[in-house]
């Protein structure tokens, strides 16, 4: 019997979601099931066929064996606490998580920058000859310095790793090599001094000039051989769709130069956002009273990413909802066994409940067709028709007409197609063997890209009329939706909320002192500023990061008109406006250009990235490093106390000094210097030039004649907001900055940062991280944005018509 | 050489299989040397903080501690035998010898705020998000951990009252493991349908067949789709399949105990759909008690508007038309000051606990009653105050687990960082050990307490 394992490493209250130690292997070989390598592992080991726990995940029939754990599975496990362990944990969680070998015939091409014809080896000799001829010299040249017998980094010795994947157990390690090489992760930038830092910590372009880097052709040669040998050996590798840490794919792989890459991601079934399910239940269930089964995924970069959680409570709720929707669709009463519709219920469906004259087979079929059309907007195919009428008959026989019909109709609402976004690629394959989404799938994908509703009749009609057979047709349709002022497109605003994260301001708890703190108003102001920038639709990214315009207490006027919250006019204090500032409806207003520049200097964002009683420099730094500078920050080692010292007499910058110790600095050098500039604001987002700290000496002296303390004495300390860019891929950003305004202005001007923004747009709308196969799509999207003078609409239209959006890698 | 008995034991432990087939389970039970004592845990979580001074016995002055390291150096360990319980705890007087009031535990890793959400029953920090009010789930909570150790037909049942009557299932207090929150069912009628619905109406038998046909049908269809997928796309359908299977098996087990469910299940009531908070909470306690008595679960969490989205509920049912947020900020209502209002509301909850205790005590089990094998823990997701900082986390524990928990005591642990100081994680380790596990740590350690040994249970309560 096959066994599976999934383990979660528990990191102590730190970033990122479940860290999976995925392991690679082949079907039939019993995997070692002991949880290995991760600290605090909660491993649930189940036996396929018994009933699992609350939603333990493992594809039945898949054996998953850890990738780094093959012929030398014993003895190289990192010991927690050593610097080595820290590095191994980091690289294991970030790179190995991406690989799974499937024990089935499922095949997905691994990322390849270009796509020449696939290599095929008929025999081990043939493969070996090619290896010796073309691959081994490259490995020797680029890799062996670290992965040779003298110094086997990561316990990987490429000189001794068997190139015969069938006759040895080396396939798993080769799969890791494939991933590392094709994503630009290896060779690491610190190739000249391998022990200096963790490999993930530094952007790849910081390579020392004398460290040789493989060019695209070399990467291609290595990758193609590994793929072909894997295939010959019958070991199949699937590239996992990742939902976090998308920046691990080196920027230059995507934007390094013209690319012929084609999408390499296979069929998709994406989670339905709660909002989409809600409108589905409303539309299809005629307003049935259903409970929300889905919650947004808190672990992914964007809420739309990752897999759906179809655990048992969710499934249970989905079933209850489906029954409630069927009831709402088929209200009727039985009079002497005759079913009579109520509230305009469709006779076709109500007919099924009739006890007196049971529905004929033809009528059963008509009902199934009606249910499909209503719920899925399509007709059932012949097999589906037979299966569903069969279920109806069986159910009526086993359970009587009332229950039988109810549960059988509910089945339509519980199909994967109903509870997930189906973007499988059901269209025809192209010359490269990639499949296009079927026109109907495109209609759904477009609708869900911009709205929470299913496609309307016009969009479905355009699909049937062949409008989506060309990219131009899709782009025109997307453009039409984008330009339609009457169509609500909540998903666009949601992107900016999720990307910037400013809406979290309402969740940051401030103490009693916060009597003039109105986070909801601040968030509404930033919402409105983004809305205003999008309306103008010019230089959108630059405006977002640099405008000194702001909406101030924007909602106040609207509220005043309906007579509410007139007392909350203190909101403007957060923007540094004087207490007697007069509210105006001529908004946005201009704020001093040396104080504010764009979203990252808006109080809402600053509060969202603050703590209860102080700025949160670390998370500001992480945000900028990851979301603007496209960097990767390793996970916090489990041995580190992730807390700053409590020292009320010191400024935050002073307290942050603990992170400048060598052990911490590996990561914190990526964080601190892009965060310090934001010290020109306090934790309510107010501009300041001084920070107030406790004067410990004066406080100690502040006692009455009996020595009883009279309270804390405070003192102002000048702000040091200097910062600098370090380790940014590309050369656009380097050097010092004096404060946050200067920092964000530099970011706003940077084409590199703009591309990182495009990458995030891509992740949100595609619901996945980009792979090397998306390079051409991303570049096309970026061109569309630039050519249009920085139009978000142009960017989106290009994205929704891109190959990455429309094509899926095919199954063999 | 395999011994069948060991193999079966191995299945029951190693598989982590929450729902074993009834036959296997019976075999496992038979294989055991002696029938193990049942062990049950109930958590009652009320929002808005439990202030330390409000649960100290009468005559014992106990102020809230200063929000900083230090404080009392001594452990206070008193018998409750000759003490008078404070106003809000008085409903528990008949069981004073089974009562333990625990003060002085800290939970600083959680961060604090109006609610600590999952962190109240867990021991972890918010990490990336901000403060204690984060809804991040970084680890298992104690009820999730116990549910894994004591699997029932339903491994864990979460019943709650949300301030929003429209809330059905919410996730904010219990978690199975990292990023896997457990649901809190907030609508009594839906909770009833989930737990007792299989016998709710005459159509139960028919629905059973129809439901099973549906589940089987879906499984076939999903497998077809699954074959064309890989990676996470495939995994999520694998989970869906597994869920369907769990539901199907559970349905069988519910059918097996149909008679019990009919005889001992709750009787649906108007309160199930009442707009009044207290009505719904009453109903949930009823349903929860019945779920324990019918053997549906061993771990029950009852949430009274716990969680950051709900904590400011208004107890109109108690005649207090002032929300808990305002009360927390010192608001008075009809001449009653904030602390009186706190006490009135708490006493109502303690009354509900007393009702539950009474029901458990009425059911014989072994040579005693169900109460002998049940531990009820009352605390707030808001720790020690309306604006919690988690320097201390008052708790009230009722039960003695067959004499293994030394009850009838008032325990007040030394202040934060003092020798002998203990955290909520130590309390939870104690519970894990009461459940028969040998774990000696839970969640993450408090890095600011690195000079203290944070392992092990609260030895003071171990008999």
With helices defined by DSSP (H or I, 4 residues minimum), what is the helix count of chain B?
A: 12
Assembly annotation: heterodimer
Radius of gyration of chain A: 29 Å
Strands of the widest sheet of chain B, in order across it, are 2-12-3-11-10-1-7-4
How confident overall, as mean pLDDT of chain A? 79
Task: Identify the overall geometry of chain B.
Answer: globular
Q: State the shape of chain A.
A: globular
- Uncertain runs of chain B: 1-21
Structural class of chain A: mainly alpha
Our count of helices of chain A gives 29
Q: Beta-sheet strand percentage of chain B? A: 5-15%
Strand tally of chain B: 12
Average pLDDT, all residues of chain B: 87
* Tally of DSSP β-strands of chain A: 18
Percent strand of chain A equals: 5-15%
Helix content of chain A: 25-40%
Biggest sheet of chain B: strands, sense, closure?
Answer: 8 strands, mixed
User: For the report, how would you describe the main beta sheet of chain A?
Assistant: 2 strands, antiparallel
Describe it.
The complex is a heterodimer of chains A (812) and B (463). By secondary structure, chain A is mainly α. In chain A, helix 2 runs antiparallel to helix 4 and helix 12 runs antiparallel to helix 13. The longest helix of chain A has 31 residues. The two termini of chain A are 27 Å apart. By secondary structure, chain B is of the alpha/beta class. Chain B is built from twelve helices and twelve strands. In chain B, strands 2-12-3-11-10-1-7-4 form an eight-stranded mixed β-sheet, sandwiched between helices. A two-stranded antiparallel sheet of chain B has the order 5-6. A two-stranded antiparallel ribbon of chain B has the order 8-9. The interface between A and B is large, with 101 and 93 residues.
